[in-house]
Write a structure and sequence with these properties.
By secondary structure, the chain is α+β, with helices and mostly antiparallel strands. It has 6 helices and 4 strands, in the order βααββααβαα. It has a single domain, classed as Alpha-Beta Plaits (2-Layer Sandwich), CATH 3.30.70. Strand 2 and strand 3 form a beta hairpin. InterPro entries: Dimeric_a/b-barrel, Rham/fucose_mutarotase.
Length: 117
């Protein structure tokens, strides 16, 4: 199952507010993410505003497309857009570009032993 990691840049002047917004994400948004195939989804925030997202999904393009059909996603993206710097595509969900995974411990251990992990 593909693991996805992406980065975005949060305005360093708004980190506290950004963190506060994620303490209580709207229940409807949480449900939409789960229903659209976003599993084990986490965000990590560095003190300079670097945001790293990680999730597991069967098909990232399909998971993104499914979220685009949800009204709650449009509302959430509109509320959150002002927190981000360098959004060339208008909203954070459209600016996400997965990073290439170059090392995975579990995969290499499984390759060594010939056993699935």
């Amino acid at each position: 199952m593909p693991r996805i990691c992406f980065t975005l840049q949060v305005d360093p002047a708004r980190l506290d507010e950004y963190r506060a917004r994620h303490e209580r994400v709207w229940p409807e948004m949480l449900t939409a993410l789960a229903e659209c195939g976003w599993r084990d989804y986490s965000l990590f925030l560095r003190e300079d505003g670097l945001l790293v997202g990680f999730l597991v999904t069967d098909d990232f393009a399909a998971a993104l497309a499914a979220m685009q059909t949800r009204d709650v996603n449009a509302r959430w993206q509109a509320e959150m857009a002002s927190f981000f710097l360098h959004l060339d595509h208008g909203t954070a969900d459209r600016a996400m570009r997965p990073l290439d995974e170059i090392f995975n411990l579990e995969a290499q251990l499984a390759a060594q032993t010939g056993e699935p992990r």
